[in-house]
Amino acid sequence: MDDEKLKYDTILTHAGRDPSRHLGAVNTPVYRASTILFPTLAALEAKEGTKLRYGRRGTPTTHALEDAVCALEKADRALLAPSGVSAISTILMSFAEPGAHILMTDSAYGPARKFCEFTLRKFGVETTYYDPTVGAGIEALIRPETKLIWMESPGSQTFEVQDVPAIAEVARRHGIVTAIDNTWSGGYFCQPLTQGVDISIQAGTKYISGHSDLLLGTIACRAEQYDRLRETYLRFGVCVGADDAFLALRGLRTMAVRMAHHHQSGLEVANWLLQQEEVCRVMHPGLPGDPGHTLWRQQFTGASGLFGFVLRPADRPALGRMFDGLSLFGMGSSWGGFESLLVPSNPSVYRSATTWAPGGQTVRIHVGLEDPADLIAELRAAFDRLRE
């Protein structure tokens, strides 16, 4: 059947699968391979034109995941990396040259900033951080040497929604490539390439995996950006193991039902938090009162389970009582899995173009697949401990 006539969830259920190539197996098997053998000298000499030539360059398992990521992100081509940070670094290095200039949102994921500050700077690349809400006003920051504009929407830890189409339109007029960290949406609730962006990156560790048991980065791009990215990718020896690719494919098949649950439960918990006297601010673009809500409605079809809130001022012992008594909410890095997480954060340490001073403790929350009533009950008990 013509894919163009299929609904999105149907496409994701079937993308990257071809049972006829694998003895009828529904899922593409795990191909653990380094050496690929060729039957004749002519075939060996023609290997540059073959898709399978060496394990680091891909196997049927990783190729299946690349195809599925293209379907998910509505992209022309895709690359896989061993982590989200590796995917970010691959993109940034692809535009690193002496004298180059990069524009990066001030709300970007911390390791992306650090790569610019500690690695790209050594190569003579200058980075300017900009207010994530600048929109088309980013044109005033563009220089003749600007090579890349980096976005993340919603922003890491503070959840500002960027005017992605406006920024992409400005970049196109100036011949500048755009890239965006699309991890928050999982690629399911937003496809930035349809909004004019050139490259979309995800930590597939999060929602593509969905089970907190693998590390993965994905790069989805337009065809004209692929060769440049692929060259950097190959030079640095970036690759993904077949077992991780298999787990990512399995996670992707349940993405539609998982993301719907994250969306509904996240909004239910966010609305409850809005009503609590211990909370002075909730940062969730799906809430009508959020500053980014209008843009979110224009650019996204839903919201994931990750958002933030700010507690009214409390001393350290009180925060300890609140967090130490948690049982359903875990405290740990990452998010996007089936389990809920609650961690304090300090976004101010990653800001230079804007100021983060919310007047209390910032908290990042990930609402997993538990019943939201149980999560709310645990948060209510946590706030009771906070007041003791």
From TrEMBL:
<comment type="similarity">
    <text>Belongs to the trans-sulfuration enzymes family.</text>
</comment>
<dbReference type="InterPro" id="IPR015422">
    <property type="entry name" value="PyrdxlP-dep_Trfase_small"/>
</dbReference>
<dbReference type="InterPro" id="IPR015421">
    <property type="entry name" value="PyrdxlP-dep_Trfase_major"/>
</dbReference>
<keyword id="KW-0663">Pyridoxal phosphate</keyword>
<protein>
    <submittedName>
        <fullName>Cystathionine beta-lyase</fullName>
    </submittedName>
</protein>
<dbReference type="InterPro" id="IPR054542">
    <property type="entry name" value="Cys_met_metab_PP"/>
</dbReference>
<dbReference type="Pfam" id="PF01053">
    <property type="entry name" value="Cys_Met_Meta_PP"/>
</dbReference>
<dbReference type="InterPro" id="IPR000277">
    <property type="entry name" value="Cys/Met-Metab_PyrdxlP-dep_enz"/>
</dbReference>
<comment type="pathway">
    <text>Amino-acid biosynthesis; L-methionine biosynthesis via de novo pathway; L-homocysteine from L-cystathionine: step 1/1.</text>
</comment>
<dbReference type="InterPro" id="IPR015424">
    <property type="entry name" value="PyrdxlP-dep_Trfase"/>
</dbReference>
<dbReference type="InterPro" id="IPR006233">
    <property type="entry name" value="Cys_b_lyase_bac"/>
</dbReference>
<keyword id="KW-0456">Lyase</keyword>
